[in-house]
Design goal:
about 75% helix, CRISPR-assoc_prot_Cmr5, CRISPR type III-B/RAMP module-associated protein Cmr5, cytoplasm
């Protein structure tokens, strides 16, 4: 009899936990992680593997560029390197699009805008928020790039 009661109690507990888990909204970190994982796995499966390796290298260096030069300067540099033909350009384009799309989402700082257009048209408070948000986003991008993209750029 006590086993039967424990079994019922366990099922109720499991049912309560699962319903609580579905009712709990995702944290901002979870949203960033899910977004970044989707984007990084997309470039990891790119037909030009050199572009994926370059993406990994640029993802590692971009946070330092943002810290030293500011978000606007770093993204202007990234956008200047975008080219759909060369692996370097593909990698920069993917990185720029990833950041711009994140900031253009409802949770982002520049909803419905390109990130550079948003930087130009907004005030300094929003700019600082965007810079901090980009640094937080890049933590996930770097980690997933290291996990999903094997190898490094060949310097021949």
């Amino acid at each position: 009899m006590s086993l039967k009661v424990k079994g019922i109690a366990r099922r109720r507990s499991d049912k309560t936990q699962s319903s609580n888990m579905t009712d709990t909204p995702q944290t901002m970190q979870q949203k960033r992680a899910a977004f970044c994982y989707e984007k990084v796995t997309k470039i990891a499966g790119h037909e030009k593997q050199d572009a994926a390796k370059r993406f990994k290298a640029y993802a590692n260096s971009l946070p330092a560029m943002v810290q030293m030069n500011g978000l606007g300067q770093a993204l202007a540099f990234a956008k200047s390197k975008c080219d759909s033909e060369k692996p370097e350009g593909i990698a920069w384009q993917h990185l720029y699009d990833l950041i711009s799309e994140w900031h253009g989402k409802n949770e982002g700082c520049y909803t419905g805008q390109d990130v550079l257009e948003g930087i130009i048209s907004s005030d300094m408070h929003v700019y600082r928020q965007a810079q901090a948000e980009t640094q937080a986003l890049m933590v996930w991008v770097k980690q997933f790039a290291r996990a999903e993209i094997k190898g490094s750029i060949d310097h021949a």
